[in-house]
Design a protein that fits this description.
The protein is of the alpha+beta class. It contains 17 helices and 19 strands. The chain is 39% helix and 18% strand. Helix 9 runs antiparallel to helix 14, helix 10 packs across helix 13 and helix 16 crosses helix 17. The longest helix has 20 residues. The structure holds flavin-adenine dinucleotide (FAD) and 2-acetamido-2-deoxy-beta-D-glucopyranose (NAG) (2 copies). Pfam families: FAD-oxidase_C (PF02913), FAD_binding_4 (PF01565).
């Protein structure tokens, strides 16, 4: 067996080298470790080898070799995921896509662009700077856009511009056996279509379990004429969240409405040297023409004041706005700084808007009762919020309490007709919750789709769906 195994390894490695060259493959321990984990608390599972293809033909040829030798394939974007998506649970081959980093086919007049999988959202927006266009989906981290499609990411702008799901028009995908497909037909980018099943949507949120995304065609937006940001403090969580619900019910096309509880704002004040009042707070942003922004602001201020909110603190110039949003995006690191040496785990539930006040209030009570540090930051305009759980990695008892808390929170969201993950994905830790969420019949349909596209179960095995035989965890 060993001789045969070594022979296979040699055959596979030399096939990989002939496809993407000597520097297109790495067996080094440091490189493998770096590709075996993301930003989550899940332990590192390094792949056996990392390949760095340069084009879709190389991705396809590499996949064919893996397919012939039954080797797992794990796509890797920028590794900023929060659910353990890139770990090589059964070893195998990590496909790092960072060498494919070209922006292709910008159609300014049609508001769309196609990107390779190594292009990050900041790189795309830098590329677009002179055009008056931008891509608004913004998870904070500088993630790859195809990785964002793979996890159905969103972030602070989704309340106005939608998530990756609303903003991907077409995908080029390499399947486990090397077949290259274009989910909406090669080169197509209509704004709407009624043509057949929506394969694009099937791959959005598939977390590398159905195929390797090698191109995404994305919607773009005009940079608004006016943008103003504001901060408003509230006497209670209920008042802040009620204001959010009322602003949306009033039809204000708000671009960002982010909630921070008093623990979170305190952490942000310390971490980013700010001095906002330590009470539940909303960070807001309005986009539009000068006049429309003024109208939106007037209406929103009326609503917040009727709920006991403070006067708005303004951020009108780009510099102040950027420092405000930087503070928000640094919330993760601000939370970690509350307890040096600890690790962070972010919960990610999402509920219908009307249930938001109740779930946040109950969750805060639960945190208090169980003596847990979990500052709350939320994309509340979408009904999505995160408890950034700061946990001592050397305290198993505390880890256990956090685990029970996160399960209770997810079930509370399910009981309120919501979801266990608004934007981070299922990855490793939420596979059982996914079954509870969609039910066994829907899970069976998902498994059927997986079997049809990847009959040998090579694509990122052990993620999203529970494996029927090989239980690794
Ligand atoms: C500080 C911080 C804040 C964050 N805030 C947010 C937030 O507000 N909203 C949000 O949605 N997310 C957030 N995230 C999570 C993360 O940025 C997103 O999940 C992002 O979409 C991951 O992209 P990536 O390229 O880093 O993917 P990776 O971590 O490399 O991979 C994630 C998953 O996608 C798969 N994958 C990656 N690329 C491809 C591809 N080309 N084809 C097929 N599968 C692929 C991987 O196999 C894996 O399963 C945050 C992360 C951090 C560290
Ligand atoms: C198909 O799915 C994509 C990605 O989620 C989405 O952007 C697109 O609008 C959908 N198309 C139709 C016709 O619903
Ligand atoms: C906004 O409110 C101010 C002060 O109340 C008022 O002067 C202004 O006309 C309002 N603007 C719009 C566009 O409604």
């Amino acid at each position: 067996i060993t001789v045969f195994y070594h022979l296979c390894v040699c055959v596979v490695l030399s096939a990989f080298r002939s496809i993407c060259g000597e520097d297109g493959i790495s067996l080094g321990e440091a490189v493998r470790e770096q590709h075996g984990k993301d930003e989550s608390v899940h332990r590192c599972c390094p792949p056996d080898v990392v390949v760095f293809p340069h084009c879709v033909e190389e991705v396809s040829a590499l996949a064919k070799v893996c397919h012939n030798h039954h080797l797992p394939i794990i796509p890797f974007g920028t590794g900023t995921g929060l659910e353990g998506g890139v770990g090589a649970l059964k070893g195998g081959v990590c496909f790092s896509l960072r060498n494919m980093d070209q922006v292709l086919d910008l159609h300014q007049e049609d508001f769309d662009v196609t990107v390779e999988p190594g292009v990050t959202r900041k790189a795309l927006n830098a590329y677009l700077r002179e055009t008056g266009l931008w891509f608004p989906v913004d998870p904070g981290a500088d993630a790859s856009l195809c990785g964002m499609a793979a996890t159905s990411a969103s972030g602070t702008n989704a309340v106005r511009y939608g998530t990756m799901r609303e903003n991907v028009l077409n995908l080029e995908v390499v399947l486990a056996d090397g077949t290259i497909i274009h989910t909406a037909g090669k080169g197509r980018r209509p704004r709407k279509t009624s043509a057949g099943y929506n394969l694009t949507n099937l791959f959005v949120g598939s977390e590398g379990t159905l195929g390797i995304i090698t191109k995404s065609t994305l919607r773009l937006y005009g940079i608004p004429e006016a943008m103003v940001s504001a901060v408003c403090s509230f006497p209670s969580v209920q008042a802040a969240v009620d204001s959010t619900v009322q602003v949306l019910q009033a039809g204000v096309p708000i671009a960002r409405i982010e909630f921070l509880d008093e623990v979170m704002i305190d952490a942000c004040n310390r971490f980013s040297s700010l001095s906002y009042p330590v009470t539940p707070t909303l960070f807001l942003e309005f986009h539009g023409s000068e006049r429309s922004v003024e109208e939106q602001v007037n209406l929103t201020e009326d609503i917040t004041q009727s709920n006991g909110g403070s006067d708005f603190q303004w951020a009108r110039d780009a510099e102040t706005r950027n420092s405000l949003w930087k503070a928000r995006h640094d919330a993760w690191y601000a939370a970690l700084a509350l307890r040096p040496g600890c690790k962070a785990y972010s919960t990610d539930v999402c509920v219908p808007l009307s249930r938001l006040p109740q779930i946040i209030v109950e969750t805060k009570e639960d945190l208090m009762e169980n003596r847990l540090t979990g500052p709350i930051a939320g994309h509340v305009g979408d009904g999505n919020f995160h408890c950034l759980m700061v946990v001592d990695p050397s305290d198993p008892e505390e880890q256990h309490r956090v685990h029970l808390f996160t399960e209770r929170l997810a079930r509370r969201a399910l009981a309120m007709d919501g979801t266990c993950t608004g934007e981070h994905g299922v990855g490793l830790g939420k596979r059982a919750l996914l079954c509870e969420e969609v039910g066994h019949t829907a899970i069976n349909v998902m498994q059927g789709l997986k079997d049809a596209l990847d009959p040998k179960n090579l694509m990122n095995p052990g993620k999203v769906l529970k494996e029927i035989t090989n239980t690794v965890f």
